[in-house]
């Protein structure tokens, strides 16, 4: 295993994002459509937060109702904005941060995704799943 491998090797660079003006229903659709669990929230080119699928589950019954009965979610989602639900105090890394450093951050913190930012611009996202897949490739 290479010790100085940059996170850019394993990060997702084609990032799905949400705008702070999007609704939570839009967020849920993106989570399900793209089979992802974390979406950076942006205002213009600047990242202002991170929304996780777990954040939605905390305020709704997203997994408790089937896809044909979405009325419960819609009512709950209209009570909150993305900015009220998202994580705001983000830890981020640059694309040159090593995979080892990213693993150390994620191992110590209570979140499972980090935005990758270069020169103030969102260039990717790295998750615990990316790390696990990288480790599996090493065997």
What can you see in these coordinates?
Strand 2 (38-43) and strand 3 (46-52) form a beta hairpin. The strands form 2 sheets. The chain has a 3-stranded mixed β-sheet. A two-stranded antiparallel ribbon has the order 4-5. It is of the alpha+beta class and 139 residues long. It has helices spanning 24-34, 53-59, 71-77, 82-85, 99-108, 128-137, and strands at residues 18-19, 38-43, 46-52, 113-118, 121-127. The longest helix has 11 residues, at 24-34. The model has no long low-confidence stretch (mean pLDDT 88). It has 6 helices and 5 strands. The protein has a single domain (7-137), classed as CBS-domain (Roll). InterPro entries: CBS_dom, CBS_dom_sf, Diverse_CBS-Domain. This is CBS domain-containing protein.
Measured by DSSP, the beta-strand proportion falls in: 15-25%
Number of helices: 6
Q: What's the SSE pattern?
A: EHEEHHHHEEH
Derived structural class: alpha+beta
Annotation, overall tally of beta strands? 5
Q: How helical, in percent, are the residues?
A: 25-40%
In short:
By secondary structure, the chain is α+β, with helices and mostly antiparallel strands. The protein is 35% helix and 20% strand.
Kindly list the characteristics that best describe this protein.
Diverse_CBS-Domain, 3-stranded mixed beta sheet, CBS domain, CBS_dom, CBS_dom_sf, CBS-domain, alpha+beta, single chain, CBS domain-containing protein, 139 residues
Q: What's the arrangement of secondary structure elements?
A:
Elements: E1 18-19, H1 24-34, E2 38-43, E3 46-52, H2 53-59, H3 71-77, H4 82-85, H5 99-108, E4 113-118, E5 121-127, H6 128-137
